[in-house]
Design goal:
The strands form two sheets. The chain has a six-stranded mixed beta sheet with strand order 6-7-8-3-9-10, sandwiched between helices. By secondary structure, it is an alpha/beta fold. The radius of gyration is 36 Å and the shape is elongated.
Length: 615
């Protein structure tokens, strides 16, 4: 809207980055897991089968060394080999089905979460979008939920499987040598303290990365969307520098996280060496004094690897889970934003609208202490045309925004047919509303699809009639693909006037009871505007219409004209009354008429401004 000031939305503060943050998202994790607990349970069964089967190979080494190699019991060789091959087949099969089951479940979850977040964002109030870049929101919808695959996918189950294997290995190791096991376990316990500190440090880094990525994506989206402005001002190099700075911030964050993960890997490798050294020393001593067989030592070393393996899994999977929780925190922040209909105030279904609109002492501000509207009061009768005029920033578009229920008054009431819009379910009201904005927005689809957007399911005859009334047929039928011509992103393949005509056709097809025209003909030349006025006149018949018009000559037939300045109505009446009063409207009208005459007429041409109500 043309004169609306940049609004600010009260943002929730970031969650604290302390180590207990996982508690804040635990309810969300349980909500994600609950519908999939059957799949996760089956996954746990498969991981148990896979891990138990995986222990057959190390367990068989004791019999291979002590019985087959040392004691020459060759008849045991074939059964041992067959047992190992069978266990390997079971391990491979269960691992395959585990991946199929949980990986696909995780991807479905990501799709569901994206849809949930997108649907929630679509229902946030307009002032939220005023305060947040569209590119940032796109990034948060698409990227922040990506990491949750590790919560219900193979990542979490593999980690649990690793812990299970470690537990089984621990009991086997205690049977072989409790002394060596407890010494090795002491080293692992010391390393767990390092892991706790590391992940407490890494999680804020991942959280910050999501924020930076959203900011950079937002600016990149704006830059590409405004490429004509960028090229028109030869600002390619400037945008290159802005993006390079953002990419550098992402790189710095990634490098910081890589350093942390690398230190974890270093610590894990050091741990493995330390455990290996302790086991080799103590195991060697026990073999020499005869308390441990060679086969028992080899088996101990193999099972020790299974005991220590979860530590390495924590380095990889733990990092992924930390990233997932950081993304889930950001997703939760977005889902916690209050929707337009939330709060319990909007509970009433709007009945069929007749069209009477009233403002009762309406005050409004975007920012505290900076009023935009100051006690606006007026009445627009059913089927009448109300025009709003005034200088830029006078409050015209804000008034229109309140009629469309994009905002709530700071004080006062907006009534439609005597019903306060503050208590109405917005969907039931806006379905009876038609809007044509100055900044025409078209989707990247065909002309037909953009017109039909105002009334899904309309018949071909209804679509063509709307296009005829809006003069869309004059250019659409000249295209090779006709109404199936794709207009491009934001309608880039059409001229400004053509886009505006498609927008007007969309409003005609919607057949609204209340119509808002926010400088709807601003992109049209005078000749085309005169043609479009016929379509607009048809559209306005029997509807309560509000018009913001740049050209004051186009609103002379309005039933009432509200002249706004500084957020207040300073004059009201029809064209003849206001022109005759020699006030602000007269000043605006004569100034504009004189400017147009100076620009387009030769000296001495033209008539005096009309004072009647006829165009």
């Amino acid at each position: 809207m043309s004169e609306r000031t940049s609004s600010r939305h009260t943002r929730k503060p970031d969650l604290p980055k302390g180590p207990s943050n996982w508690k804040a998202v635990w309810p969300d994790i349980k909500e994600l897991i609950r519908p999939r607990r059957g799949q996760l349970a089956l996954g746990l069964v498969l991981i148990v089968i896979s891990r138990v089967a995986g222990l057959v190979l190390p367990a068989s080494t004791k019999y291979l060394v002590d019985d087959v190699l040392v004691n020459r019991r060759t008849e045991l060789l074939e059964p041992i080999i067959l047992a190992v091959l069978a266990a390997t087949a079971v391990q491979a099969g269960s691992a395959f089905w585990l991946t199929q089951l949980l990986s696909k479940s995780a991807q479905r979850l990501i799709a569901e979460l994206r849809c949930k977040v997108q649907a929630h964002v679509n229902r946030l109030p307009v002032n939220y979008f005023d305060a947040n870049k569209s590119g940032q929101l796109v990034s948060r919808i698409m990227n922040d939920v990506e990491g949750v695959r590790n919560l219900v996918g193979t990542g979490l189950v593999e980690f649990i499987g690793g812990l299970l294997t470690a537990a089984l290995s621990f009991f086997v190791l205690m049977r072989i040598s409790s002394t060596m096991t407890l010494m090795a376990l002491a080293v692992v316990a010391a390393f767990s303290l390092v892991l706790r500190y590391a992940f407490t440090t890494l999680r804020p880094i991942f959280r910050e990365r999501g924020k930076i990525t959203a900011e950079v994506t937002g600016r990149l989206t704006e830059s590409i969307g405004g490429i004509r402005v960028v090229k028109g001002y030869h600002a390619e190099s400037r945008e290159d520098r802005v993006f390079a700075e953002g990419a550098g911030r992402i790189l710095a964050n990634v490098l910081k996280s890589i350093t942390g993960v690398s230190l974890l890997s270093l610590s894990a490798t050091t741990l493995m060496g330390a455990v290996g050294g302790v086991v080799m020393y103590m195991g060697g001593r026990q073999i020499i004094d005869g308390s441990l067989t060679l086969g028992g030592f080899v088996t101990f070393m193999a099972f020790m690897a299974f005991l220590v393996a979860p530590v390495f899994q924590v380095v990889g999977i733990g990092t992924q889970l930390t990233e997932a929780i950081a993304g889930l925190e950001r997703t939760r922040e977005l889902l916690d934003e209050q929707q337009e209909d939330a709060g319990g105030a909007r509970v009433m279904e709007m009945p069929p609208v007749a069209g009477k609109v009233e403002f009762e002492d309406v005050h409004f501000h975007y920012e505290e202490g900076k009023p935009v509207l100051k006690g606006i009061s007026f009445e627009a009768g059913q089927g009448t045309v109300t025009a709003l005029v005034g200088s830029s920033g006078s409050g015209k578009s804000t008034t229109i925004g309140l009629i469309a229920a994009f905002y709530r008054p700071t004080r006062g009431r907006v009534l439609v047919d005597g019903v306060d819009l503050g208590g109405v379910k917005l969907g039931s009201y806006r379905s009876q509303l038609g809007v044509v904005f100055q900044e025409t927005f078209l989707f990247d689809g065909s002309i037909r699809e953009n017109v039909e957007f105002g009334r899904p399911g309309a018949t071909e005859e209804q679509i063509l009639e709307a296009c005829r009334l809006a003069r869309v047929d004059e250019f659409a039928e000249r295209f090779e693909q006709g109404y199936d011509t794709v207009v491009g992103e934001r309608g880039v393949k059409l001229s400004g006037g053509q886009k505006q005509r498609v927008s007007i056709a969309r409003a005609i097809l919607a057949d609204p009871r209340i119509l808002i025209l926010d400088e709807a003909t601003s992109s049209l030349d005078s000749e085309t505007e005169q043609l479009i006025q016929h379509g607009l006149s048809y559209l306005m018949q029997g509807r309560t219409t509000f018009v913001i018009a740049h050209r004051l000559s186009t609103i002379r037939r309005a039933d009432q004209i509200l002249v706004m300045e500084g957020g207040e109505i300073v004059e009201r009446g029809n064209h003849a009354e206001l022109f005759a009063s020699q006030g602000r409207y007269h000043e605006l009208y004569t100034k504009q008429h004189g400017l147009e005459r100076n620009l387009f007429l030769a000296p001495g041409e033209g008539d005096a401004p009309e004072t009647g109500t006829e165009a």
